[in-house]
């Protein structure tokens, strides 16, 4: 169990590996993995209680916000502003947490200012990945809509091409992940996130990590977090 209060966010453009980094943070530092995406699917009747690929067992529902380890990792969806803010406000005062959303919450200055009004961040992790790497990752990404499981045809493909490993149901590619839409998405994120990154940099809490592979970036993230909160797993164990 995490024994020190930590409030942090992980920023990065689509395809930067925020999900993988946050899953490793969850395992290594005893943070419970709390998925607002799963919560939204259940609220809309999508069901499918399975966790996303790689998520810790039992970490896929919002009930963990006040149970278990007392630490929460919050994952956002297209409704991340409302849902993440509600989760942050509902977390116990002594709860360490890391906020992550697929879109990089807070990805706009307005979102960052709204978060400021309810809590003070200790740490901001920013993932900087080259444009070409992001374009390739996003264009190869396919999703199982009912569960939210994400596959990448290059390095994390399904056992049978085009179908979900667990259900056998068809995978789909988001309109936003099609090659013609990726460049516009990345430009939009960069423009919106620039003032957010500058704000956190001016406060001295921004830590940026650059690279093309999550496995090579992760040891530096682990070292940083180890200086802030005691790990429950060594880097080699993760």
Automatic annotation (TrEMBL):
Region spans: Disordered: 43-67
InterPro entries on file: Adenylat/UMP-CMP_kin, Adenylate_kinase_lid-dom, ADK_active_lid_dom_sf, P-loop_NTPase
GO molecular function, one term: AMP kinase activity
Native organism: Eolophus roseicapilla (Galah cockatoo)
The UniProt record lists the keyword Chloroplast: no
Zinc as UniProt keyword: no
Alphabetically ordered keywords of this record: Kinase, Nucleotide-binding, Transferase
Protein name listed in UniProt: KAD4 kinase
Biased composition (Gly residues): 44-62
Record Pfam families: ADK, ADK_lid
Sequence similarity: Belongs to the adenylate kinase family.
């Amino acid at each position: 169990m995490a024994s020190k209060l930590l409030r942090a966010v992980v920023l990065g453009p689509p395809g930067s590996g925020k999900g993988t980094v946050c899953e490793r943070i969850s395992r290594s530092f005893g943070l419970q993995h709390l998925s607002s995406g799963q919560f939204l699917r259940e609220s809309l009747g999508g069901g499918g209680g399975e966790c996303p690929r790689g998520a810790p067992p039992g970490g896929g529902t919002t009930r963990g916000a006040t149970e278990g380890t007392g630490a929460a990792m919050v994952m956002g969806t297209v409704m991340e502003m409302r849902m993440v803010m509600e989760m942050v406000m509902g977390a116990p005062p002594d709860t360490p947490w890391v906020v992550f959303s697929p879109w990089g919450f807070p990805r706009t200055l307005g979102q960052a200012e709204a978060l400021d009004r309810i809590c003070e961040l200790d740490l901001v992790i920013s993932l900087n990945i080259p444009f070409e790497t992001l374009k390739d990752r996003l264009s190869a990404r396919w999703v199982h809509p009912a569960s939210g499981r994400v596959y990448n045809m290059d390095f994390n493909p399904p056992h049978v091409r085009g179908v979900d490993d667990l259900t056998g149901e068809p995978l789909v590619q988001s309109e936003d992940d099609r090659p013609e839409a990726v460049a516009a998405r990345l430009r939009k994120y960069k423009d919106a996130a620039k003032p957010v990154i500058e704000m956190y940099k001016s406060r001295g809490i921004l830590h940026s990590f650059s690279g093309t592979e999550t496995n090579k970036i992760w040891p530096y993230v682990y070292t940083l977090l180890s200086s802030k909160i005691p790990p429950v797993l060594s880097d080699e164990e993760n």
